[in-house]
Amino acid sequence: MNAIDLLRQYIETHPYGLSDGTIEQLEYSWGAYTRHTGVSDLRALTTQNVNVWIDHLCKTKAPDTARTQRGNILAVWWYAYREGIVDEPPLRARKVRPISRDPIAWTPEEVQRLLYVADHLQKFWRKCNWSQSLWTGSLFRAAFDSALRLSDLLELRYADIQPVLRIRQHKTRRHVLVGLRNDTIEKIRQCVENHGHEVCWPLWGSLPSFYAHVRKVVRMSGVRKGTFRYFRRAAVTHVECAQPGAGTLLAGHSQRTVTEQFYIDKSQVRTVILPPR
Fold this sequence. Notes:
2 domains; 2 strands; globular; two-stranded antiparallel sheet; mainly alpha; hpI Integrase, Chain A
């Protein structure tokens, strides 16, 4: 059996099934690994080969990328060992050092500034003549109110919009309860009336074009640099400030550590205490 056949068998026999994105990541990692080792059969799955690869990842890739690609290779290796395809288990594979994280989120004042700038955009999308201010302002508000990921927001239909939504998250397949303010719902109504589609925010261009638009609004607002996902961080952080522990519920995380490592801006939650003198 060669490396490609092993990967295909792992994907086809996975007990839960794998998403297209996960399959793509596995294929990319496996291809990069076999190219680096120069071995395209099962001899690639040895402690020596894998450790050389992990050392290479740690030197050339971002920590998260190294951790992900290592995990992809080890998942296939464990499968091959459990199925009796290879004799050596991946027990001595090199580990990646834990990553120290310090998430940064926009402050409430920065969020308000972003909403103000979005509401005062004057242009229309060239290809469809939709209002940039209605589309952007309503999406920004919904992102901050709900802390939903972009993929979940872009699937929302206007018929489903109400003050409390029960959403099944695309990434985790977990359900989460989120809310929308009345002014957010009104902005969404105006946006839908403007473009006339069933979904609340049909894309007017490619995703790279959308990300470029967000960067432009961020620059215009004068707030700190950040991507669209900063709305999710800001929402989780601000909820955490009001009620410790609630940020995890809002984000829909199954583990508190995920919220703390990736979403909570500790500089906004914690107050600095000076020692007495």
